[in-house]
Amino acid sequence: MIDLEKLTLGNRRALAKAITLVESKLDTHREQAQGILNQLLPDTGKSIRIGITGIPGVGKSTFIEAFGLYLIEQGKKVAVLAVDPSSPLRGGSILGDKTRMELLSREENAFIRPSPSEGALGGVAQKTRETMLLCEAAGYDVILVETVGVGQSEYEVAAMVDFFLVLMLPNAGDELQGIKRGIMELADALVINKADGESINLAQQTQSHYQSAFHLMKNSSFWSPQVKTCSALKKERIQDVWQMIEEYQTAANECINAGISAFDEKRARQNSEWLKKLIHEMLELRLKQNPDVQQQMPELENQVLNNQTTPYNAAQKIIDLL
């Protein structure tokens, strides 16, 4: 049994056990996990959720460690949910984030939880949202969600955090060659890492390019995406990144529309999208578990392969079985 009182007091062992339960694929564990989440809901929602992404090699783990250590110095409790890519062949993950964030993992006020992506879209662990709620209930003020940084992960993580930060390299190429327009539209900020030594001038040029690009794009009613530079390795200008996030949170809370702040409205919208996604996933699971579907699916697939029926008609027959 998981001691919820210990969890809400910040006991890391109780939190880890609750996350393991949430990540389980067993139906009985899923029911227990949802019961726990329902009881803990009043204790959630008090953190700032920050998504961090960037291409491999940009220094995500180094940045998160430096950023986390700075936040702890400011009296914050920090949870890091680092999603590791799972092997498409065997489904295994290295889960090496604790070794990459050695200093942060020793801190009493830090909690690092590497989770295998298990094939979830874009490498964001399927249970990351529930894990965030558990961390909030355990009293963590700042939750950092690190993504794999490939494929569609940026879109997935942007849909579950308050602030979406994209890490860039100083040598991102000619103007905007190093970043997609879609990511630019999602980002609340770009942070150019490794801005030290001989790369400082290059980082400043890159910063100028991206600032110009942001001016051409439509911004929200309360926030214009910003571009910062830092050196995570040398722990330089890390405080500028946190100050910017605090400014965003203040602006979002002060922007009131129809009696609700932009901050709360964004979270409500994300919950609504999460509901729709869960309905979709549950229907898919119900389909796979249906004995009539299991029986007829191979025959219908054969008919589609042999051009005896259209994929639409085959799909309609499967849906009708429900």
Description:
By secondary structure, the protein is α/β, with parallel strands linked by helices. It contains 14 helices and nine strands. The strands form two sheets. A seven-stranded parallel sheet has the order 3-2-4-1-5-6-7, with helices on both faces. The protein has a two-stranded antiparallel sheet with strand order 8-9. α2 packs across α3 (27-40), α2 (12-23) packs antiparallel against α7 and α4 (60-73) packs across α11 (238-254). The longest helix has 28 residues, at 262-289. It is globular. Residues 86-96 and 174-178 have low confidence and may be disordered.
Summarize the structure.
This protein has 322 residues and is α/β, with parallel strands linked by helices. It contains 14 helices and nine strands.
- Counted by DSSP, the helix tally is 14
Low-confidence parts lasting 5 or more residues at pLDDT below 50? Answer: 86-96, 174-178
Number of strands: 9
Helix- and strand-based class?
alpha/beta
| Side-by-side strand order of the widest sheet | 3-2-4-1-5-6-7
Topology:
Blueprint: H1 4-8, H2 12-23, H3 27-40, E1 48-53, H4 60-73, E2 78-84, H5 97-100, H6 102-105, E3 110-116, H7 128-137, E4 142-146, H8 153-158, E5 163-168, H9 181-186, E6 189-192, H10 200-215, E7 226-229, H11 238-254, E8 256-257, E9 260-261, H12 262-289, H13 291-305, H14 311-320
Helix pairs in contact: 2-3, 2-7, 4-11
Attribute tags:
322 residues, 50% helix, alpha/beta, two-stranded antiparallel sheet
